[in-house]
Amino acid sequence: MHFGKQIHIHLPDGTATGLKRAEISNWNGQAIAFPRSRLSELGSWSELKQPGVYFLIATAQRDAVGDRGTVYIGEAENVFTRLTTHAAKKDFWNEAIAFTSKDDRLTKAHVKFLEAKAIALSKEAGRYKSENQTSPTLPSLPRADCDSMDEFLYYVRLLLGTLGHNLLEELMPKSSRALDPGAGKATVAFSLKYKGLKTEGHMTDEGFVVLAGSQMSPEETESVGEGIQKQRERAIKEGAIKQGGTVWTLEKNMLFSSTSTAASFLAGASQNGRTAWSTQSGQTFKEWEELGRPNKS
Fold first, then answer.
1. Residue 171 backbone class (left: φ over 0; alpha: ψ -120 to 50; beta: rest)
2. Is residue 12 located within the same domain as residue 126?
3. Mean pLDDT computed over every residue of the chain
4. pLDDT digits (tens, 9 = 90+) for 63-93
5. Domain of 15?
6. Domain for residue 167, yes or no?
7. CA–CA dist 234, 61 (Å, integer)
8. Proportion of the chain above pLDDT 90, given as a percent
9. Cα–Cα distance between 235 and 129 in angstroms, integer?
10. Alpha-carbon span 36 to 43, nearest angstrom
């Protein structure tokens, strides 16, 4: 079952781009988010002078089509000291978000557990390119501590998303493809009507997700547009597309800003996604949307 959450975000200098401290009601954790240029100002913050897990982030470039951004995930007994070291040795990041405890209950073993799980989730989600060269193994913790850290990580994921980085979230959670009693809704599967391609797409809160295994045309027409061409080139370079034969196949789920972008990407030709995608019952995306987006197709 899903419950509403109340999040408090404090802006110490009153600016949206500066330092942020975020917390969730009835949770003993806290997030400190800041641009790299403001790190020196945090030397007096006790919130960072303790064990925690942190995320060094290079946000996606707006002019780079399909850029996913980059992340490095780490842990430390003194987060501020470790971040200062990274500032001297790691050049890629421009933003950081650190998570520590408000009651000083996180230990070295706890934050190593959080680090290992966060790295695994980040690589599985595939939203950001990972700067972590290795995947650490989970440390041995008492069963109760494992449960506590899994709960802590749930709130880490929630605050990361609230602060603009859904880097630990799957593009298409498996539970979203079937009726979720907690959420009370299921997503509707759409297929693309283009040259017999076998595809499956779903509308989510973030955009339109095309599932791994969907087919795409290797050909590109003049109508496809430079933006789609670059997006296809990037996907090939990153191993997101299995090439060969008369059709290519997506190797992982992919998120698109609109149904038309998704359809044009797969077809290699300009497409109107509102009419190109349809449900199993034959409704076009346009018709489905005009009916109020009913749960069932």
1. alpha
2. yes
3. 90
4. 444 557 899 999 999 999 999 999 999 999 9
5. 7-162
6. no
7. 14
8. 80
9. 13
10. 13
Phi, psi of 169, rounded to the nearest 5 degrees: -105, 135
Under the banding of pLDDT at 50, 70 and 90, the label for residue 291 is: confident
- 112 CB contacts (<8 Å, ≥6 apart)? 75, 136, 139
- Closest alpha carbon to 128 in 36, 30, 61: 61
Please give the angle made by the CA atoms of 274, 206 and 191, to the nearest 5 degrees: 40
Contact 44, 55 (CB under 8 A): no
Report pLDDT for 50.
96
Q: For residue 280, what are the contacts with CB-CB under 8 A and spacing of at least 6?
A: 189, 191, 297
Say how far residue 256 (Cα) sits from the centre of its chain: 13
How many domains in the chain? 2
Which residues are CB-contacts of 232 (< 8 A; sequence separation ≥ 6)?
220, 241, 265, 268
Q: What does the block give as tokens for 197?
A: 């391609």
Q: Which residue has the tokens 């989510």?
A: 204
Identify the domain boundary among 109, 140, 162.
162
